[in-house]
Design a protein that fits this description.
Elements lengths: L2 H6 L13 H10 L8 H21 L3 H9 L9 E2 L5 E2 L1 H12 L16 H15 L3 H26 L5 H4 L1 H12 L4 H12 L16 H20 L15 H5 L5 H4 L23 H14 L6 E8 L1 H7 L7 H4 L3 H11 L9 H4 L2 H6 L3 E5 L1 H4 L8 E7 L4 E6 L12 H12 L5 H12 L8 H4 L6
Parallel strand pairs: 3-4
Antiparallel strand pairs: 1-2, 3-5, 5-6
Length: 468
């Protein structure tokens, strides 16, 4: 046991030798979680992520994306030792695919900002399915999630901002989170884990174009990453080898998918656990809108204006806010979640962006639709320079009486700098879970998840079932 790390919260060191491949060093990073004693705050952070994953996944299980997979792949259901969230038995990789897709569908899943990445959807979906199939304990699940988050968030951060120009990090980087978590649960040694991670590198996929407009296929990126993690581990377990330089090679991940990859920074041996710096979403929409929405709601609460009082709103944001959400497209609920003018207008009129934000009633609200053309998004170079480490927005609101209101929102509510408390996270869970299961079932599940490290039998996770 590494007792020093228990107090310092530092991830155990990995090989710094020049001869070790990056895949091997990332493999060591994952496997080291078996041999160290994670600090209490790290264990607690992992439980928060698992609670939050269920918050997002339970309503997503009834969405069209997950239901399409259950229908289209029905011949693979009804047997196996893992479960979909709708209560169907499934082989582990199929459960990971469906549940991973479900957990990314409602846009309530967590974020690691420096990697521009939602780690929970692929990592936890893959880990839960493997843990169910292998009859592992709650502590095993927690440790695998920590490993998956640590490996994938470091890879995502190393790939840099340029990776996000064309790729959706949850699909690409999430493959490594799933692989590391599943590999740890299958007790892979360093050599086999290295082969699994190298295999995952050639399976990493997810194009930005998937959420430029109607984004119905975007959740599949998370599901595919969760599934690919199982495939990569199975392949490596069976003795299939992969090139050792799939990350750093001339035609490897870094060269193919990034213009500014920084692998050495990703393996900094003095780095603390990234799972303690996760953003828990407070709104059901694209995270690139959050800072602007938080700033607008702050001004509304402070000054008490209504939609009728507004002459115009200007949002100064970073590149992803401008490029991804600076549109007027609300052709579908999924597109509306990526439309900043709609989200801001709906937030002003209805005071929140939750599950009902993209209901037919909200999307056809004449007051919201009338306000949308008055909302503009501009690229703010100072704010853009902070991205991706810091997600900020500058809000300017012109009122009909000539008043100008301004506010700089430095972080998003839910970011590590403005975190949701455990009580607020529990409220989020109950709100979202109760939309798909009874309050009693939701409360029982929540209680079990908060004490997950003491759970010997994960059988309770197999009994979770949403109700249509």
């Amino acid at each position: 046991m590494d007792t020093a790390n228990e107090h310092a919260g530092i991830v155990p060191a990995v090989s710094q030798t020049s001869t070790a491949s990056l895949a091997h060093r990332f493999a060591e990073l994952a496997i080291s979680q078996q041999y160290c004693s994670q600090p209490k705050d790290v264990i607690h952070a992992a439980k928060r992520c698992i609670v939050d994953w269920y918050s997002a996944a339970l309503p997503g299980a009834l969405g069209p994306e997950a239901r399409a997979l259950e229908s289209g792949l029905a011949d693979g259901l009804g047997f196996g030792n893992a479960m979909t969230l709708t209560g169907k038995r499934a082989p582990a990789r199929l459960a990971a695919l469906i549940n991973g897709t479900a957990s990314h569908a409602t846009e309530f899943d967590d974020i690691f900002a420096p990697a521009i990445y939602h780690p929970g959807s692929p990592t936890i979906a893959a880990a839960l399915a493997a843990a169910q199939a292998l009859n592992r304990t709650g502590q095993d699940l927690i440790i695998s999630v920590i490993a998956g988050y640590e490996v994938s968030t470091r890879i995502g951060k190393a790939m840099g901002r340029s990776h996000y120009k064309y790729w959706h990090n949850t699909g690409t980087v999430g493959t490594f989170g799933a692989t590391a978590a599943v590999g740890l649960l299958y007790d892979l040694d360093a050599k086999t884990m290295s082969n699994a991670l190298s295999t995952a590198a050639t399976m990493a996929a997810g194009l930005q174009q998937a959420f430029r407009g109607d984004a119905r296929i975007k959740p599949l990126h998370a599901g595919h990453a969760a599934d690919a993690g199982h495939v990569a581990v199975a392949s490596a377990q069976g003795g299939v080898t992969a090139p050792g330089d799939m990350f750093e090679g001339e035609c490897g991940l870094g060269q193919a998918m990034s213009a500014d990859v920084d692998w050495e920074a990703a393996l900094d041996e003095r780095q603390s656990y990234n799972i303690t710096r996760i953003t828990i979403k407070n709104h059901g929409c694209c995270g690139h809108i959050f800072a602007a929405l938080d700033g607008v709601l702050h001004l509304q609460k402070k000054h008490g204006f209504t939609a009728a009082d507004i002459a115009g709103i200007t949002i100064g944001g970073y590149s992803a806010t401008y490029n991804v959400t600076g549109n007027q497209c609300i052709d579908s609920p999924s597109a509306a979640r990526f439309c900043l003018p709609f989200i801001i207008a709906s937030g002003i009129v209805h005071k929140s962006i939750r599950l009902d934000a993209t209901s037919p009633e909200r999307m056809s609200d004449p007051v919201v639709l009338g306000l949308m053309p008055l909302i503009e998004v501009e690229l703010d170079s100072e704010i853009d320079a902070l991205f991706p480490e810091q997600r900020a927005a500058r809000v300017t609101i012109q009122l009909e009486d000539g008043t100008t209101l301004q506010h700089f929102q430095p972080h998003r509510v839910g970011d590590p700098e403005l975190p949701l408390s455990d009580a607020q996270l529990s409220d989020k869970f109950m709100e979202l879970a109760s939309a798909t299961m009874t309050n009693g079932d939701a409360e029982a599940l929540l209680q079990a998840l908060w004490s997950l490290e003491t759970v010997v039998d994960l059988g309770f996770t197999k009994s979770v079932k949403v109700h249509a």
